[in-house]
Amino acid sequence: MKYNTCQKKLILEFFQSHKESLFTLEELIAALPKVGKSTIYRQIGKMEAEGLVKKLEAPFYQYLGMKSCESHLHLVCVECGKFIHLDDEISHSLISKIKEMEDFEVSSSETTLYGICRNCKGNKK
Predict the structure, then answer these.
(1) Which residues contact 124 (CB under 8 A, 6 or more apart)?
(2) Which among 97, 23, 80 has a CA at the least distance from the CA of 53?
């Protein structure tokens, strides 16, 4: 049985009024002082299960040695976790297209696309 509590309503209204923003749990707690911390944690988990909110990946670290990751996009396989440095030329082409279509400056070193790699896709057939 699903209950729509006042606290859940406050959280949903907050998200609905900030559709274009991302929030950490700490930011939600600060923005919703009338909702208790444990309630926010509990409700966010329930809302995620219901498909109302999406949890994005937390920061992760990768050893780079002496090479730079600033000039290209990255791909991560959601099945096996493989991390791929997308070719610079393809990255620049995609970034240029996004800038042209949306007038949006992409930070290539900070951008990761999630999907399923060739190997994992082949294993599902």
Answers:
(1) 116
(2) 23
Q: What is the pLDDT of residues 6-28, one digit of tens each?
A: 998 999 999 999 987 878 889 99
Task: Give the gyration radius of the chain's Cα atoms.
Answer: 19
The answer to whether the beta carbons of residues 91 and 71 sit under 8 Å apart is: yes
Please tell me the distance from the alpha carbon of residue 68 to that of residue 105, in angstroms, as a whole number. Answer: 19
Q: Are 86 and 73 in contact (CB under 8 A)?
A: yes
Q: How many CB atoms neighbour CB 73 within 10 A?
A: 23
- CB-based contact 111:74 (threshold 8 Å): yes
Q: What would the pLDDT profile of 81-111 be if each residue is shown by its tens digit?
A: 788 888 889 999 999 999 999 999 998 777 8
